[in-house]
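User: My advisor asked me to double-check a structure prediction for NUDIX domain-containing protein before group meeting. I don't want to rely on an old file, so could you generate it fresh from this sequence?
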Amino acid sequence: MDYIKMIRNKVGSDPIILNFAGICVVNEKGQILLQKRGDCNQWGFPGGAMEIGESLAECAKREVLEETGLHVEIDYLIGVYSNYFTTYSNGDQAQTVLHFFKGYPVKGSLNVDGVETVELAFVDPEHAPPLFNQQHKDCLADYRSNEKGRFR
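Assistant: Sure, here is a fresh prediction for NUDIX domain-containing protein from the sequence you gave:
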């Protein structure tokens, strides 16, 4: 059982704090990888929830591999985004803390699973489509500004 399901079995939909990790994957052309999400059919960065026993970097790399088919390496931490509150469509509530890294692909090829991911695209960061939430919008803005170690 994954961590979020385990917690939700105990607290129901009450507010909890969730740790997420994601990566702004940048290719050799300077384009960033975006994922059209299966849950909302909107664009965002690949990433997801941290599981017990893994580091934030391991979480970010695992999630990118699961959602895109790419193995990545991390360059640096862009920022930590912690002042965001979400109510999910099922009524679950959470304050989400996203640890967002810059990285690059080292092997693999893009793979759309049709469930979590319905489309993947490398895009010019200055011409990215609208992103699905404010947290990801702030991540993109900080990447564009060449931020490192930003806290929001």
